[in-house]
Amino acid sequence: MSDSLHIAALGVDAFDRAFEETSTPFIHLDWRPPAQGDTDLVDILFNIETKLVDEKGESLVQKANKEAYTRICKGQPVLKRLRPAHECIPGMTKKSIFHAGPPVRWEDMCGPMRGAYIGALKYEGLAATDEEAERLMASGEITYGPNHANRCVGPMTGMISYSMPLWEVVNETYGNTAYCTINEGIGKVMRFGANGPEVIERLKWLEKVFAPAMDKALVRMGGLNLKNIAAQSLAMGDEMHQRNVAASLNFYKAICADFAEVLKDDPNGPAIVEFLVKKNEQFFLNLAMAMGKALLDAARDIPYSTIITCMSRNGVDFGINVSGLGNEWFTAPCLKPKALYFPGFTEDEANPDMGDSAIVECYGIGGFAMGAAPAVVRFVGAGGLADALEYTRSMGRITYGPNPDLAMPNVDFAGVNTGIDIRKVVATGLLPVINTGVAHKLPGVGQVGAGIVTPPMDIMVQALKAFAKKYL
Amino acid sequence: MSDSLHIAALGVDAFDRAFEETSTPFIHLDWRPPAQGDTDLVDILFNIETKLVDEKGESLVQKANKEAYTRICKGQPVLKRLRPAHECIPGMTKKSIFHAGPPVRWEDMCGPMRGAYIGALKYEGLAATDEEAERLMASGEITYGPNHANRCVGPMTGMISYSMPLWEVVNETYGNTAYCTINEGIGKVMRFGANGPEVIERLKWLEKVFAPAMDKALVRMGGLNLKNIAAQSLAMGDEMHQRNVAASLNFYKAICADFAEVLKDDPNGPAIVEFLVKKNEQFFLNLAMAMGKALLDAARDIPYSTIITCMSRNGVDFGINVSGLGNEWFTAPCLKPKALYFPGFTEDEANPDMGDSAIVECYGIGGFAMGAAPAVVRFVGAGGLADALEYTRSMGRITYGPNPDLAMPNVDFAGVNTGIDIRKVVATGLLPVINTGVAHKLPGVGQVGAGIVTPPMDIMVQALKAFAKKYL
User: What's the average model confidence in pLDDT over B113-139?
Assistant: First the structure.
């Protein structure tokens, strides 16, 4: 070997093996061409940088994104109530049922979403059989549409119907309100598309037994800032998407005194406590989502901002909203998660990615905070500690900055990476990483695994082009 | 600079600065002479290695230590009851009061220990005033001595008197039993030497209100394996000495169903739940200690073993027991912790190191598991994440091996370092690191800070010499 030969392998790793096998010294640089080498996109990125400037030559986009980031960080999401959806959503009728993700028509819905609609109609007493429910959906009598358009979010299928209790979270800094359903626990659950009698029975128990007691406790305590719970839980190994073990307990810890007073004379007290404390380690997920919706909605509609205000999936399409582009959806077909499957299931049976839960990644937790939660990487089949830290660090390349209120002790106390910038995603080719559950593709089956997924790159490109059209 | 000059700085770092200032390239090797350069000790270590061998030439010490390590790891510590000390400790009378650490006489006790004895006599109704209590102690009428000699442990002053409820932990693998008091919570507490009316009142509440309900719940559930709680909590950022936030909640989670049933008709139910869940983040510490005592006692009295079976401090002396040396104490004056002090207090007011709690470091948690609990390093003033990881890794050099049941996700799922070997401590000069609370040196004041501490090296040397005398 000549001393003067220095090999740097750029981008693709196809050559590395040849160097390794011949013991040739080399370094691998993980380089990609900017904007995937698409010169139109490079032009847009360049023009955004150079043309969208104020009189002092400062970037309008950077200023707008700072505002969006600041609003996301400064919001104080306070949990106030747990009460029926029809009290929360203006104009909701017994025949309104909302779903996760961007808009989708009944005839185009995926299996688990169809299963969940059938279940929701039975739960509301609008249909007695599956066939009746399907006829009703096809008849056009049922109003449906995205949760996000109703200040709501829901995990997986995300069903929100008239009688379902919703967590009400007020963003006290900016005055907006957001809602999410109660997490049903594990096993056969509507969010994964199951709709049998035990699913309906559990939802009725949550509505009739659990929610009234919890609401009384919340009213008694006068509100609970969920960001404090999230901060404590990041120090306790939760990323709050696929791991909510600590957060669920911290939530109970915060309300336990008022809850115990409310439950004192309730014969259902022990069952209620057991459901919350012991039987549902994902309990806090839905609260993390309502918190995320409350924080992100405050960052909508900032002119020139390229920050993503929601990422959401309906099991067919993945959709995003971007602050400077209002409520317009940019959509493309969902990907299937890279997942670990429960025994007896395979990827063939997996439905593509689904749910409003990716709202949590929009403010820096979930997949973005895997470094804080090394135990979760094994659950979602995403490697070991080093991978967890790398996922977290890499998200710093596509976000505005670290969230000062949400530190990760395991990542040397760094704040979670907050504010996904579509410019940075397109420029780097690095997609947001989302931790997620996986549903069976057929109606009525339920969860089959957990894993990680990204949005399709195409929606980032669409959004950037729409941004260019609007502002350049 | 000549290309051929290569500088390695060994051991002391006095020269490093000179190299740095002159930009001279060098590497610093953290080398120390074996056994601190003491040739007698080097001889002992060499002779242990070469002379204590079986017919196949295999080390008797290594074999004995493997047995000790295996017993520590294989023990299954099951919490069975919470009941009065006099039901647990054979021969205990109303006038028996036991303390933390190795034996110490009343007239030699440190301030907080004296304060605690005064409090314990008032709590038992044996004295009405401080003066009366002091007279009684001086009279010789009170039986006192180390908790460890009574299968017990207690944090800080470690008071165990007749009426105090004790957690009863049975090591189901080896049949031995261990006990520890209930953690009193924060503020003015007897374990830190406080003894005013609110201290006594809280202890009476624990005895009369809390303990009977908890014992009923434990009997109802039939026992709880504490190792499962410890394993879960290591994945949630606790090292279980100075941080028990997750472990305390996980304990409640495990018993919540039975506890809720027991508390259903108890008017004190809400106060009991609030004490356990919300008001006492160190609640699990005493359970971790009882677990440690149950696990370590099973490794006592193994001929030839150099594994430490307890580390314990009475505020004056630090004592250890070593498996192959039975119940003999090796003692020397306690060091003062390197600590962060609460506002208004300084190191001048700190009492030297105290308590039986270092039993948890003997099986690999506490200071040994700081890598699993980066949030704790700031609380004890011991640096950042890198320091936490380094403390944990370095303890691998003085222990037998990793505990397969207690993995630390933050340390890439490594097991905690278990089984402290006095040979390795003396050979490396590396002392066990202990996380600890700090008491005010005067009686009756209470906690003033938290920090880290080590045993004095002298007791390791004493023990090694005693080992040589017995076996070589």
Answer: 97
Q: How many domains does chain B have?
A: 2
- Residue of chain A whose Cα is closest to the Cα of B258: A270
How many of the other CB atoms lie within 10 Å of CB of B236? 26
Q: How far apart are CA B67 and CA B69, in angstroms?
A: 5
pLDDT in tens, A366-401: 999 999 998 888 888 878 899 999 999 999 999 999
* Strands B354-355 and B308-314, bridge-based pairing: antiparallel
Distance CA B191, CA B177 (A): 23
The terminus-to-terminus CA distance of chain A in angstroms comes to: 53
Q: CB B257 to CB A273 under 8 A?
A: yes
CA-nearest of A176, A202, A173, A206 to A189 is A202
- Which pLDDT belongs to residue B2? 45
Backbone angles phi, psi at B301, to 5 degrees: 60, 40
pLDDT digits (tens, 9 = 90+) for A363-374: 999 999 999 998
Alpha carbon dihedral A252, A254, A257, A262, in 10-degree steps, equals -60
The number of beta carbons lying within 10 Å of the beta carbon of residue B369 is 35
* Contact B385/A at CB under 8 A: yes
Do residues A179 and A99 lie in contact, with contact meaning Cβ atoms separated by under 8 Å?
A: no
B412 touches chain A (CB under 8 A): yes
Residue recorded with tokens 């056994």: B35
User: Are the Cβ atoms of A257 and B278 closer than 8 angstroms?
Assistant: yes
d(CA A152, CA A182): 12
What is the predicted pLDDT for the residue at B14?
Answer: 59
Instruction: Please say whether the beta carbons of B444 and B198 come within 8 A.
Output: no
Asked if A105 has any chain B CB less than 8 Å from its own CB, the reply is: no
Residue of A nearest to B277 (CA): A253
B416-428 per-position pLDDT tens digit:
999 999 999 999 9
Instruction: State which residues of chain A have pLDDT below 70.
Output: 1-20, 22-32
Q: Name the CA dihedral angle for A427, A430, A432, A436, rounded to a multiple of 10 degrees.
A: 160
Cα angle, residue B267 at apex, residues B263 and B269 outer, rounded to 5° = 40
The contacts of residue B433 (CB under 8 Å, 6+ apart) are B361, B367, B368, B370, B391, B394, B395, B452, B453, B454
B193: domain range? 76-289
- Please check whether residues A255 and A332 belong to one and the same domain: no
The CATH number of the domain where B99 resides is what?
3.90.1710.10
**What residues are paired with A169 via a beta bridge?**
A79, A178
With CA atoms as reference, report the closest residue to B215 among B148, B175, B266: B266
Better pLDDT: A374 or B78: B78
Of the candidates A464, A301, A300, which has an alpha carbon nearest to the alpha carbon of residue A398?
A464
- Quote ipTM for the complex: 0.90
Q: Which of A289, A311, A341 is the last residue in one of the domains?
A: A289
Distance CA A195, CA A118 (A): 7
Give SS3 for B130: helix
Same domain, yes or no: A310 and A284: no
**In the predicted structure, residue B259 carries a pLDDT above the cut 90:** yes
Question: In the prediction, which pLDDT does B325 show?
Answer: 98
Domain annotation covers residue B425: yes
Phi/psi for A447 (5° steps) reads -75, 140
Nearest to B274 among A246, A257, A270 (CB): A257
Rg, Å, chain B Cα set:
23
* Residue of A240, A243, A252 to mutate, interface with B, max B Cβ within 10 Å: A252
B245 in reach of chain A (CB within 8 A): yes
Q: Tell me whether residue A262 is in a domain.
A: yes
Burial class of A346 by CB neighbour count within 10 A (0 to 12, 13 to 18, 19+): exposed
